[in-house]
Each structure stands twice: as C-alpha cells, then as structure tokens.
Amino acid sequence: MNVEQIQYNISEACRKAGRKEEEITLIGVTKYVTIERTEEALAAGVHHLGENRLEGFLQKYDAIGEKAKWHFIGSLQSRKVKDMINKIDMLHSLDRKSLAKEINKRAEKPVPCFVQINTSGEASKHGIEPEEALKFIDGLAQYDKIQVVGLMTMAPFVEDEEIIRQTFRRLKMLRDEIEEKHYQHAPCRYLSMGMSNDYQLAIEEGATHIRIGSKLVGQK
C-alpha cells in the first residue's frame, strides 16, 4: 500500500501548481484487488474507492457498504444501471443520452455525474466529442436525477508530457466554459482526470479527482 508516497507526490504537484491539497480527491481504484486489500486501503485512509465493473463493485459494496464513498469510473451499460445507481456516490462516465434517461428512471435521488469527454481524440476511448459537450450538457436539464458536477477524461498512454497536458488542458477549458453558464443542473466544478501514470501532471493542469489503481493499492 503506497498511500504515503502518493500523498507526498500529490503534495509536491500541488506545491508546484500553487494549489491546496484539500482541492484533490484521491480515488483508490480497486478493480484488480481483493476485498481484503480494499479494506486495507480504507484502513490506510483512502475513503474514496473506484470500480469499473458492476460485478466487482457489487461484491465490494456488499462487504464494505457505506464505509466508503463509491465512484463508478467505467463505461456503464444502460441495462446495469438499476443494479448500482442507488449505491454509488459519483458516476464518472456519463457519455450518452440513453444512459442519462435510464439513470433518471432508476435513481431515487440526484446522482452527481461527471460527463466523460474524449479530449485525446483516440478512437479507442469512450466519451463525447468536445464540440458536442455543450449541447449534450444543455440537454441534460430535463433529467432531474442528473447533477453534472464536472467533466472526466483519460489521457493517451504516451511518453510525451505535452500531449498528456494538452488532453487535460482541453478538458479544463471546456469545464470553465460550462461553469460560466451557471446551469442549475450542471454546476460543473470538478475535473476527474489523472491516473497512476499521469496524476501529477493532471494536478498541475487542474484535476480535482484523480483515479489511482496499481500505484496505490497494487494489483492483487
């Protein structure tokens, strides 16, 4: 468990960027580890946990329940919404109207959602095209159970830091544009970006929620 090292790196990235550590929510991505390992992360002070598969999430939720804040960070099929939407604290992967519609139908209370944007331009990545984001978010006003708290993206897995930074900068610019509209249904304050290999760069570029798996909790 590398919680201290990660916290130190977060602190350093914040210092470099002139930001406060309290602005950063560390999400421990536990998709590859056991329930026991997940409980160790919780005991070590990682209270926000991220899962990307329904089955893995439900197993851990049954064991841990509301002792953790649960973030669903993977692509979500509409037919699976009913099984998990009232158990999670945040969804990081809202990327289509049909999913919003199903969440609205199944949720018992408003769900804080990040709209996933494909700022890298990679065909393999999920997410809405940046040019479509405003129209999409504007259209979510009709769903009273959707609260757009921010935007999410994934950077390409490349060595070139500038390409990674550009992916994050593009998301921040889009977030700023949406935030300025003062939508009641979409305050859009947060940026979910940065994973094990690039979270320090993400913090320097404005991330508020970072999703760290292997570097934090290991892989088993």
UniProtKB/TrEMBL annotation:
Domain Alanine racemase N-terminal: 2-218
Top-level taxon: Bacteria
Xref: InterPro entries: Ala_racemase_N, PLP-binding_barrel, PyrdxlP_homeostasis
The UniProt record lists the keyword Zinc: no
Modified residues (N6-(pyridoxal phosphate)lysine): 31
Pfam families: Ala_racemase_N (PF01168)
Keywords: Pyridoxal phosphate
Family recorded in the similarity comment: Belongs to the pyridoxal phosphate-binding protein YggS/PROSC family.
UniProt cross-references to PANTHER family, sorted A to Z: PROLINE SYNTHETASE CO-TRANSCRIBED BACTERIAL HOMOLOG PROTEIN, PYRIDOXAL PHOSPHATE HOMEOSTASIS PROTEIN
Function text: Pyridoxal 5'-phosphate (PLP)-binding protein, which is involved in PLP homeostasis.
Protein name: Pyridoxal phosphate homeostasis protein
Species for this entry: Sediminibacillus dalangtanensis
Taxonomic lineage of the native organism: Bacteria, Bacillati, Bacillota, Bacilli, Bacillales
